[in-house]
Amino acid sequence: MCHRVILVSRLPTSAFAVGTSPSLRRSRRLRVLGVILATLIAVLLVFAFVTASQVFTNLRNIKLLASNDMEWSLAQIELETRDFAGALEAARLAPDPDLDRLRLRFDIFYSRISTMASAPAYLRLTVVPEFDAALARVNSFANAAVPIIDSPDSALLDSLPLLSVQSAHLRADARAMSLSGIALYAAENDKARQRITTTLYRLATIALLLIAAVVGLLVNLLFANRSARQTGAALSQAYRRISTILTTSMDGVLVVDGTGAVLEFNKASEAIFGYRYEDIRGKNIQELIAPPDLRDSHYRAMERILTGQDRHAAGKGRVRMDAKRSDGSIFPIEIAIEMAEDNDERILIGFLHDISDRVAAEKELLETRDRALAGERAKAEFLAVMSHEIRTPLNGILGNLSLLNDTALSPIQTRYLRNMEISGRVLMRHVDTVLDITRFEAGKLDVNIARTDLSSLLQELVDSQLSAANRHGTTLNWRWEGPARAWVRTDRAALEQVLLNLVGNAIKFTDDGTITIEAEALSETINGLPVMELRVSDTGIGISEDRLPKVFDDFVTNDPTLGRVPGGTGLGLGIARRIVTALGGEIGVESTPAQGSTFWVRLPMEEGRQPPATKPSGPAPEITHLHMLVVEDNDINRELAQELLQREGHWVTLATDGEEGVRLAGEKPYDMILMDIAMPVMDGLQATKEIRGSSGPNRDTPIVAVSANILPEDRDRFLAAGMTAFLAKPISRPSLQKMLQDTFAGPAASNTSPATRAGLPRDTYKRLQSRFLEEGDALVAALTAPYRDFQNVAKRCHDLSGAAAIFGAHALHDVLAQADTAAKQGNHRLFEEQVAQIPPLWRATHTDLTAADAAE
């Protein structure tokens, strides 16, 4: 049974329970609000203190103003001036003037004026222009009158009229001084009172705000107290809940201190390790659960955590390791260890669980996967063997049918032969389909994106399937829907295979109808590339709605109750789906029973550029007169290859297995070796390695792999073994000719060496050139003989034509080819015209080849 253990820490369990509870969030908000209110109260108290100080200052200033006798002094100066003026007037008019009284009143007047002119308390009154001007006139009079007042009585009496005139303005000036001074003091008093009023209002406002803040703080404290009680209750409840969970859970938790002593060990841990908490409390955890060979690493991990080098035991998160039970058995666990603080003490908290069942399941899954992979390999090997075993007799059948088709046959024999060939090729396609499925399942689809003429591809597709459609009485055509975009970048071969499957299905299920292929460049994109949609629509029997979701599954064919024989394996659409998916596109179908179906394919296709026009090349030259070694274990295939090669004008040597092929290759040189792959005694790959590794005459001879296995990885193995090219079974005349052209006439090098230009090894080139010169001389001799043999000359023209193209004698090749054609058509006049040009052309060719050899 799989147990899971969680290590429980001694940290407050509230951390697990109320970290996100509403009461805790509310408590936090109340604390924040309380801090704000307390800060506001402190600020308001400072403002209140400052404002109160201003109030006291203003009151003190008013008190000082109130205690000042300036206003009384201003009133007294007017009174003293009036008394002095009255005494002066009485002395001037009285028959016996009282000069002592006059002098007394003047002294009082003079003293008042002097005090006001010089006392600092009255200086601010001088800012009033009226007061300053009046004081200056009065002070000037007083200073001027002092000598007169202090003069003897007789002199004073004589001066009384003058003093009376000079003092005429005193009352007015004294009154002006009094009024302007009193007005100034009144204004200052008003301002002082206004300041006091404003300050008192401000103080009242601050007091109100302070009261509100205090009330708010009190309310906040009430709510905070309530929230604290709720949080405490939640913490208590969470603690009980966590304790219950940890006690009853199958997950376990253990906690140790910095020395490794056990602090906590829950029930789940007891069940997993077989220890009782009461028995191991305070003991070292490493000695209890760590396997002996892992204790040192455990101690180092603990030390790293405690010293702050790392907060994890190993890596990050959970790690897998082995642990030991009380009975000494070792078992796998997943564990995560973290460090925490408990009352300033560092502790280690471990969370772990027993993964014995999971490890066992993983092991079983791996074993199951290995068995499945072995089964897949066995299936692939079986398919490869069966492919070879099926293809070998099919190759013999189809090859001999091809040879038989070149003989004289009656019309009925021709019909029988054609039917057998069709059936054989259908069977071959079924074998290829099975191999395609294997290739797709192995993920071995090679995508080759290249410039492609989509219009040309569709036209060739229609041309190739037109006869099959005509046999069903069905019209087959294609068209662009919307603006044409002929040149695109895609995998032509893969797209052609998809469309052949779709068109082939449409032909099979459509009689006397119409099949239309539409190509449309869509405005949407896939992975940033423009999308091309290709639709194959038919007017056939259609597909029922319940079968549409399964139409692209493997081995699904149309319902036989519809009266149609599908004639397929049910794999074609499955392969088409795999190819479209590999190309990054989508495939689908829409159908109505008895009305027809439309299969559509959407593929990302980058727009391609049309290649520049090139001068059309002439027909590919025939390659003849090669010495070929054929290594093949199957009698029929060996005879078929011999017959095909001999019909092409080559000499053939046969070997029945790889060992015999190696022996023959060591005896004399050959121009090419055709090597079967699957053979007894020694297979083709080993035979190729033996030939390449030897010092024999065929060490550098082209070796062509002949096999039914056409998977890309097989091609790679053939090339790695030293093979030059690949020829798939069944061997046909066109495929054989193409292989020879690619091998001997394909390369176009810039090197001036004739051997390099022909694409042949130097020794092979010399041997073929010598033979070519001999055959050319023999042809000229036959042309100039007294009694010319028409058939002999025609055959020699045919044989020499292909070799002339290989050695660069293009003018000679054209004349020989036209002579050969005229001979086959029985046009003797044209034949004679062409052969008449051969001798001078041959002499020029002979001279050029000889000169090239001398130049090397």
Describe the structure.
This protein is an alpha/beta fold. It has 4 domains: 10-247; 250-354, 2-Layer Sandwich (Beta-Lactamase), CATH 3.30.450; 445-607, Histidine kinase-like ATPase, C-terminal domain (Heat Shock Protein 90); 747-856. Helices cover 59% and strands 14% of the residues. It contains 27 helices and 18 strands. The chain has a 5-stranded antiparallel sheet with strand order 2-1-5-4-3, sandwiched between helices. A 5-stranded mixed sheet has the order 7-9-10-12-11, covered by helices on one side. A 5-stranded parallel sheet has the order 15-14-16-17-18, with helices on both faces. α19 links the parallel β16 and β17. α4 (99-118) packs antiparallel against α5 (129-149) and α14 (454-471) packs parallel to α15 (492-508). The radius of gyration is 61 Å and the shape is elongated.
How many independent structural domains?
4
Number of helices: 27
Tally of DSSP β-strands: 18
Provide the β-strand percentage band.
5-15%
- Taking the alpha carbons of the first and last residues, their distance comes to 85 Å
Strand order of the largest sheet: 2-1-5-4-3
Q: Determine the mean pLDDT.
A: 77
Helix content: 55-70%
Strand count, sense and barrel status of the largest sheet are: 5 strands, antiparallel
Tell me the Rg in angstroms.
61 Å
Shape: elongated
Domain Response regulatory: 627-744
Modified residues (4-aspartylphosphate): 676
Organism: Shimia sagamensis
Domain PAS: 238-309
